[in-house]
Amino acid sequence: MNNLVIGQFIPGKAWLYKLDPRTKILVTVAYVFLLVFANQWPAYLLAAAFLGLTLVLTGQSLALYWRGIKPILWLILFTVCLQLLFTGGTPVLWHWSFITITVPGVVNAFYVIVRFVLIVLMSTALTLTTPPTSIASALESLLAPLKAIKVPVAELALMLSIALRFVPLLMGETDKVMKAQKSRGMSLSTGSLWQRSKAVLPLLIPLFIGALQRALDLANAMEVRGFESADNRTRYRVLSFTQADVLATIATIAFTVLFIGTLLIHF
Amino acid sequence: MNAITIDNLNYGYQEGEPLFQDFQLTVPEGQWLSIVGHNGSGKSTLAKLVLGLLEAQSGDITVFGQELTPASLAAVRAQVGMVFQNPDNQFVGATVADDVAFGLENRQVPSAEMPALIEAALQQVGMADFADREPHTLSGGQKQRVALASVLALKPKVIILDEATAMLDPAGKSAVLATLQELKAKYQDQLTLIMITHDMDEAALADRIVVINDGELALDEKPAALFVQGAALKQLGLDQPFETQLQEALPKAPQQYLSKQELAAWLSTLKA
Amino acid sequence: MAINIEGLTFHYGGAKQSPTILDDINLTIPSGRITAIVGQTGSGKSTLVQNLNALLLPSGGQVVVGDQVITSKTKEKALPAVRAQVGMVFQFPENQLFAATVLEDVMYGPKNFGKTAEEAEELAKKALNRVSLAEEFWQRSPFDLSGGQMRRVALAGVLAMNPKAMVFDEPAAGLDPQGQLELLDLLRSLRTEGKTVVLISHQMDQVLALADQVVVMQDGQVAAVEAPDQLFQRSRQWFLDHSLDLPTPVAFAKDLEEKGYHFDHLPTSVADVAAQIAKQVDWSQVTEPVNVAGADWQSQQASQSSADQVLTSNSRGGDLHE
């Protein structure tokens, strides 16, 4: 039912699964950061190669990634149109009334597509191979220095992982309440804007009350199992860097150096 | 020794609407007790009071000789585990193993010791093969067995099950009940089980059944002695088990409780 | 109003990507009867009933509700008319309550389906009386009620729409024995009125006690459509293969058949089992004490610490559930 690939975790045993989640997050952040500066085709080519390697190391089929891209195609198309329409310059390729399409516009649009797709696929590779809780605990570990300025990092990480855990549940609940109210004649597609927003209440209120009830139940269950504060706990999932992480780091540094090199050299 | 002693308990949700008035109940160590009663009879509230999730207006609750006070709360909870009704709302971890780990993490068990403890706990409920599964891929019955494993990992002396099978299908229900029977057989007197339910077939597994009605202890019997009290049960909004109803509908029958198998065996002697 | 299911197939999205959930279902759900749909979790029961009121549209085939035909091409605009005719009570329906008062919540359905406020209120009051929710609760918030009372409000919310057919998904789940009996009575009274009643249940005792027709689902297909007294004649192995329980009286009768008893018809209740056993035994040879209506076992038992002895002394003659 849920065809969304982006943000989903799929269990596996490929090489990328062995990496420490902190490494994966840092590499992804560095990659996205570097891409912002890409301006010429060699940089994009290099970035695409790095992504290709990453995707292969996830051990998932490329068809899966295609399914991940499909739902956001319209978003990409929209951005492309904007680029085509609003990039000026010469030479002009085509002109009709207020619409002018230029060569730099086409080039820009192409780069936007590539950049967009690269970023989406890289993030997908991260979430696909890393369970949400690992992402949460990696963030907790990476943000640990913020504890010094009284940021409750442990609490925030626990909240995040519990919130992630309840997402599928709340989606199922939304579907159920929606169907129940539709059976009682709810219609969200007719009437004025005011009527339509009011029509959402029979959906939102049960969801809100249900979520509240779940929260109360969960608090009880956590308390009974000895939860007092997020800080005074040991951890089942211990994060540790291994050889794989060293390799990944070296590869990323090599990529970074090459990438900066392509930016400096003018083709 | 008594596992749980409840003495002169007074509690009401609202001022002037008492539910429990001078309520008394003693649960000896190693007993399997069922607490039954219709919806709203106060049976779940009782469990929450014992675990300090609700606070009584007055009265004493003692767990293995230790009185329940704000100061002793953690120590009491270390001895009493609880499985709740809704399988989804007590699943804290992102995977089965993480969920069992949650309690261990709270008790500050060293990380290195956890995998073995988790494995052992999951083994006992027959869920060891599911350690890496995420909750939404499990059936209700499987989730409840994980909840049971999460409690078992903490090695409690008492486990309270608050309508833990009420939301399950028959297959899930019987898997959970079979697991409970195995656990009780394994731990014998080391484990006190308190099962809150309104299902009489389920209650029949216990050594003792306490019927609660509007905060009052209406009946307190062994299952065999309780089930023959058809009129009393009906008045309390509860069912007699099938076998007892049948026994009473026959022209003649032994004047004691017989299980389904025993009744069938007795009937077969008449036919011979 | 009968519902006809003709060659119904269903899958989410395109046929290539997602597995077939319902596979060529052909079925007639008659009016004035209770049709039970049984099968293990994941067999397609829920998907099937959601096709009955167009919450899901068929991928292939059609569902005919009264004079409306629902196919994959049915337009959104046509759906409310179907839903007004087929009321749906989901599992744990109390989770759908939302309004400020009980009465308003029950009025929601009728108002959506075009009733005026006065008409809706009239229908709501009737429905609330029907589920025996006392008038003192009508102006209260549904969230202040007990679980059992909330269930009644939710049921009333669908009853008030006065649909010609009603679908119940595990309506008795979580109810205590008294609540379950009342619910079964409600279903029977709907049948008496000539409504088309569909019941999804895991509890075979309920199915045996209520259903006129049982549909067994397995892996998205219909494995059997039979009257209960015919269906439960099948072998124990058949029920094991379909992950279904047998109703308690039937299971007990099958046990006794292995011990030499004979049942000339499938027993549907305790009294029925007892009557059929009684015919086959020469009771004059039996030395056990006689069971007399009103005989009190308690007096012969070593009394435990019973807190309430008075309750046990009433007659027992009429207290068997049907």
Description:
The complex is a heterotrimer of chains A (267), B (272) and C (322). Chain A is mainly α and 267 residues long. Chain A has two domains: 1-152 and 237-267, no CATH class; 168-229. Chain A has helices at residues 21-37, 41-58, 62-69, 73-86, 103-129, 132-142, 153-183, 193-199, 201-224, 243-264, and strands at 92-96, 99-102. A two-stranded antiparallel ribbon of chain A has the order 1-2. In chain A, helix 1 (21-37) runs parallel beside helix 10 (243-264) and helix 2 (41-58) packs parallel to helix 5. Chain B has a domain at 241-272. Helix content of chain B is 37%, strand content 24%. Chain B has a six-stranded mixed β-sheet, sandwiched between helices. In chain B, strands 2-1-4-5 form a four-stranded antiparallel β-sheet, with no helix packed on it. Chain B is globular and about 65 Å long. The longest helix of chain B has 18 residues, at 170-187. With 272 residues, chain B is α/β, with parallel strands linked by helices. Chain B is built from eleven helices and ten strands. Chain C has 322 residues and is an alpha/beta fold. Chain C has two domains: 3-235, Rossmann fold; 247-284, no CATH class. In chain C, 35% of the residues lie in helices and 17% in strands. Chain C is built from twelve helices and ten strands. Chain C has helices at residues 45-52, 79-85, 102-112, 117-130, 147-159, 177-192, 204-210, 228-231, 236-241, 248-258, 270-280, 297-300; strands at residues 3-10, 22-29, 34-38, 60-65, 68-70, 86-89, 165-169, 196-200, 213-218, 221-226. Chain C has a six-stranded mixed β-sheet with strand order 6-7-8-3-9-10, sandwiched between helices. In chain C, strands 2-1-4-5 form a four-stranded antiparallel β-sheet, with helices on one face. In chain C, a hairpin with a 2-residue loop joins strand 9 (213-218) and strand 10 (221-226). Chain C starts with a strand and ends in a 22-residue tail after the last helix. Chains B and C meet through strand 10, helix 9, helix 10 and helix 11 of B and helix 6, helix 10, helix 11 and helix 12 of C. Chain B: It is a peripheral membrane protein. Chain B: Belongs to the ABC transporter superfamily. Chain B: Residues 4-239 form the ABC transporter domain.
